[in-house]
Amino acid sequence: MKLNKSKLRYRIRIKEDLEVTLTNEEASDFFDIDPKELLGEFVEEAMGKASKATKTPPDATKAEKKAANKRVRKAGKEDSKKELDEKKLTKPEKKELKSLEKKTPKKDFKDQYGDKEGESIYYATLTKKAKEKA
């Protein structure tokens, strides 16, 4: 059975889970698209508001560029606020965390991951274990 473009796209999107790897040249020939352009569209879509906020025309004035930078910073702050909304530890979880801190040496994490990252990974790991045990 020979497939044309529309049937293949239909099968990929709806009917079957297929994984196909094409080179840029094959993708260009088969789908008549520019892979770099398509990748750019995917990146813009994934970035959401931030990508829209950064778009300024090449002939933009200083004020327009400044306003665009302000929008980018504002979008970044909004995203970071969403990430920081975490549930507080309950009293049993805090108690368990303290006992785990006494049992687990921080030095092992610092040796493996470095000083800054080691400490954050140490507390993240202990917090996760405390939540599981409590």
Features:
single chain, 134 residues, mainly alpha, 2 domains, 8 helices, extended
Q: How many structural domains can be distinguished in the coordinates?
A: 2
Mean pLDDT: 76
First-to-last CA distance: 59 Å
* Shape summary: extended
Question: C-alpha Rg, in Å?
Answer: 25 Å
Oligomer: single chain
Order of helices and strands: HHHHHHHH
Largest sheet: none
Binned strand content:
under 5%
| Unreliable segments of 5+ consecutive residues | none
Number of helices: 8
Number of strands: 0
Q: Return the structural class.
A: mainly alpha
Walk me through what this model shows:
With 134 residues, this protein is mainly α. The protein has two domains: 5-54 and 68-78, no CATH class; 91-133, no CATH class. 75% of the residues lie in helices and 0% in strands. It has helices at residues 5-15, 24-31, 35-47, 49-54, 62-83, 91-103, 106-113, 115-133. α6 packs across α8. The longest helix has 22 residues, at 62-83. The chain is extended and about 65 Å long. The relative contact order is 0.06.
